[in-house]
Amino acid sequence: HPERGSEGRVMLLRAVFCVYLCWVWSARPELGPETQAGTGGAAPTGCGCGAANRAGAGNEGEGDLAGNSEHPADKYSKDANEEAAAQEMDLRSKMVLIQSNWFLMGTDEPAIPQDGEGPQRKVWVDSFNMEQHEVTNKQFQQFVTQTGYITEAERFGDSFVFEEMLNKEVKSTISQMVAAAPWWLPVKGANWKHPEGPGSSILQRLDHPVLHVSWNDAQAYCKWAQRRLPTEAEWEYACRGGLQDRLYPWGNKLLPKGQHYANLWQGEFPSHNTAEDGYITTSPVMSFPANGFGLYDIVGNAWEWTADWWNIHHTPQEARNPRGPKSGTDRVKKGGSYMCHKSYCYRYRCAARSQNTPDSSASNLGFRCAADPELRV
């Protein structure tokens, strides 16, 4: 029967087509969750975004799209996810164990007496851990993505930026300045993600120290990282790197054998930076030699918050693990920054110190964390 014969051929074709579909289905590559969820294409390989999203860490930023040849099924396996989680934890800075000891804190030859640099006194510090380098933009980005934290600069809506870092368009919108330091301008929209205000980005600076973080912001990060801010005594002991009574972490000469050991200002401040050290503003962490304890950028690059309240009156008596006053209005910051020059801000010495209110932020202010020995992670 013509119709029945035609129907048979259709059924045969359907059977062949079904067999073909089954063969294609069995031969397909395993699809990862991102593709199965309907992202419209193969999951990007090597970025770690899927595993990071699973752990709530979000995008790790620049450099994470470098692909590799791993199979999507392998990437989303239990073992691969556990490995990615471990790598995610490793985004926190490595810690250096600094052994307990006496050291000479402060100086009897203060360069800036009004800062309370003296008198020199003998201080004991228990063993502690210190982060190898300043907290970077990438590390702070992970913290914000995981926690949803909003910095104080973002909440206030502005932050202080060094004038030389701003373009003419941004400068034209600013009518205020700091009378005592006219190179500091309050820029609307300036924060850790936008260091020079709207239009600026950290994407090419993920390995630079995070800036525009207040003391309160730094505290929040260190708590999240299961760490804490160092005391001023811990910070200064760490800065000296095992040397006694020296100006800098590496000795008394600023440029031993003509070599730059820190990111500082060269030239005439604030009008001309010759950048002989290779950098106009911040530099990637670990760009300069480490001190005797293996710590990088302990002076220069960015100021670093400490745990202590500000006080300029110190006694010459010995002290053990001093922690500063119990209260105050400002917190101590140490180390100086890329803006420091001997003619203006000779505070890149280990004994030097300065202060800001806990909610202050600026384009040269960052931090690093410390931890007790039992919390070495």
UniProtKB/TrEMBL annotation:
<protein>
    <recommendedName>
        <fullName>Sulfatase-modifying factor enzyme-like domain-containing protein</fullName>
    </recommendedName>
</protein>
<feature type="region of interest" description="Disordered">
    <location>
        <begin position="58"/>
        <end position="85"/>
    </location>
</feature>
<feature type="domain" description="Sulfatase-modifying factor enzyme-like">
    <location>
        <begin position="94"/>
        <end position="370"/>
    </location>
</feature>
<feature type="compositionally biased region" description="Basic and acidic residues">
    <location>
        <begin position="71"/>
        <end position="81"/>
    </location>
</feature>
<keyword id="KW-0732">Signal</keyword>
<dbReference type="Pfam" id="PF03781">
    <property type="entry name" value="FGE-sulfatase"/>
</dbReference>
<dbReference type="InterPro" id="IPR005532">
    <property type="entry name" value="SUMF_dom"/>
</dbReference>
<dbReference type="GO" id="GO:0005788">
    <property type="term" value="C:endoplasmic reticulum lumen"/>
</dbReference>
<comment type="similarity">
    <text>Belongs to the sulfatase-modifying factor family.</text>
</comment>
<dbReference type="InterPro" id="IPR016187">
    <property type="entry name" value="CTDL_fold"/>
</dbReference>
<feature type="signal peptide">
    <location>
        <begin position="1"/>
        <end position="26"/>
    </location>
</feature>
<dbReference type="GO" id="GO:0120147">
    <property type="term" value="F:formylglycine-generating oxidase activity"/>
</dbReference>
<dbReference type="InterPro" id="IPR042095">
    <property type="entry name" value="SUMF_sf"/>
</dbReference>
<dbReference type="InterPro" id="IPR051043">
    <property type="entry name" value="Sulfatase_Mod_Factor_Kinase"/>
</dbReference>
